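Batch job 17 of 40 flagged for manual review because the log was empty.
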Amino acid sequence: MKVIGVRFRNAGKIYYFDPKDYEIEKGQHVIVETARGTEYGDVVLGNKEVEDNKDLMPLKSVIRVATPEDDAKEARNHEKEKEAFKICLERIAKHGLEMKLIDAEYTFDNNKVLFYFTADGRIDFRELVKDLASVFKTRIELRQIGVRDETKILGGIGICGRPLCCSTHLSEFVPVSIKMAKEQNLSLNPTKISGVCGRLMCCLKHEADTYEYLNSKLPDVGEFVKTFDGVRGEVASVNVLRQTVKLLVEVNDEKELQEYRIEELKYKPHKKKDKLKLSEEEKKALAELEKKEETSKLDDN
């Protein structure tokens, strides 16, 4: 069967549709029917033949390739969204609601206006919805999102100096854990491994598998190993990327640090323990980060 991949938001999830008899290429725009109604989407995957997949079925069909009139309507919708955002801000202030408005979005057919917001806890916005419906004369949907989604929508620059992963190429949030930071020998200081959103940085996942593999080839700090020239010493430190080990060895009745490549050691690689060895300071930082991560999971549900 033939499919195309379509996105409705920048770095958003890719949805698949049946192109029917249209020859659609990446970079074009299409009009499709979704659960929210008729939508205008960006094609990120042109016509592609794939095996029948139950997970993709049933596929909705493309209504048409976007025309210049459709492009113009989409541009007008974006202009209307800016006005809708201002009006909603005024109405939120009028009703005295403790909520932060993040974005406003019109469906392509103008049958619905969606407002995305963040808030601490639940908000009773029924009166606000009625007020907005009387202004826009269409269906209104207010959707509470978490801090990660807020950052994805707003975008920004990370501590690396590059645009945020979530707003550029991550279509979905990946699970990130403290173990990943520890595996990469990063400080568990929350300010060092937290992103703009205040949660663990998504990029910790990028190299997690590589670090896990490299760490599995190294001995633990404090472990005693032998070299091929017969020297026995205690592992003082390891360099994961260079795959080197510093051993505390005895030379002429004195302790001395010597560096060896992992190939120079008589050592059988073993599976790393899942349990992390943490200092008291790291445990406090860990507790703070885990509390934030748990809050994030509640927010995003």
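Reviewer: the log was empty due to a logging misconfiguration, but the result itself is present. Residues 296-301 have pLDDT under 50 and may be disordered. Unflagging and moving on to job 18.
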